[in-house]
Design goal:
This protein is an alpha/beta fold and 201 residues long. Helix content is 43%, strand content 17%. It is built from 9 helices and 7 strands, in the order αβααβααβαβαββαβα. α7 runs parallel beside α8.
Length: 201
């Protein structure tokens, strides 16, 4: 559905900011998946609200999702699997599922940038700032933040919109990203997409 609609709509609209949602379309059916889902439940509402505010400000929303080793997978299949009645994380995914004009990228490894078209999409959008949300703070968010920083992209991490297997792992990763990836850390309510759009980079 998303690819058909985007083809009909033509070129990407330019915006200096994107909201990147990492691995939120998730079945949580892996080792430590239950612990991660337990922690992720607390970010569901603030992350959904952050996405609503991004869309209201005209900021593109980019879903960057693990393919879970399924090289023949696609967006529709992954979403359907995570929303099936018996899926462990069904309620979490249902609250954060993509809308028709959101972007969706499948990634093979931890980083949003590694072997994906994310960097090309950012150039097409004219984006130089990324607000990251999703899971896990100390894994895919952390690595993606470092990769963004190495590309001179400004990184914002709303700390109440990311989760790890434990609060300790989450807090350690937040401190690391602030110190080593020059990430701006704040609660999501303090992020103004309009201010980010008009900021001088």
């Amino acid at each position: 559905m998303w690819s058909d609609l985007n083809l009909r709509r033509g070129k990407n609209a330019h915006c200096p900011v994107v909201l990147a949602l990492v691995d939120v379309i998730n079945h949580f059916e892996f080792s430590a998946g239950e612990e991660l889902l337990h922690q992720a439940q607390r970010i569901r509402e603030p992350l959904a609200k952050l996405k609503q505010r991004a869309r209201a400000a005209g900021v593109p929303v980019v879903y960057i999702n693990d393919n879970f080793g399924q090289w023949r997978s696609n967006v529709q299949q992954l979403l359907a699997y995570c929303l099936r009645p018996q899926a462990r994380g069904r309620a979490f995914v249902a609250a954060l599922k993509p809308e028709d004009d959101d972007y969706f990228i499948l990634k093979p490894k931890h980083s949003a940038f590694y072997q994906t078209p994310f960097e090309t999409l950012l150039r097409s959008l004219g984006a130089s700032t990324i607000v990251f949300g999703g899971i896990a703070t100390n894994s895919c968010i952390l690595v993606s933040a470092h990769d963004a920083s190495m590309r001179n992209i400004k990184v914002f991490i709303p700390r109440d919109c990311c989760a790890a297997r434990s609060r300790k792992e989450h807090a350690e990763a937040i401190r690391h990203m602030h110190a080593m990836a020059d990430a701006a850390i704040s609660p999501s309510r303090s992020i103004s997409f309009k201010k980010l759009i008009t900021a001088k980079n």
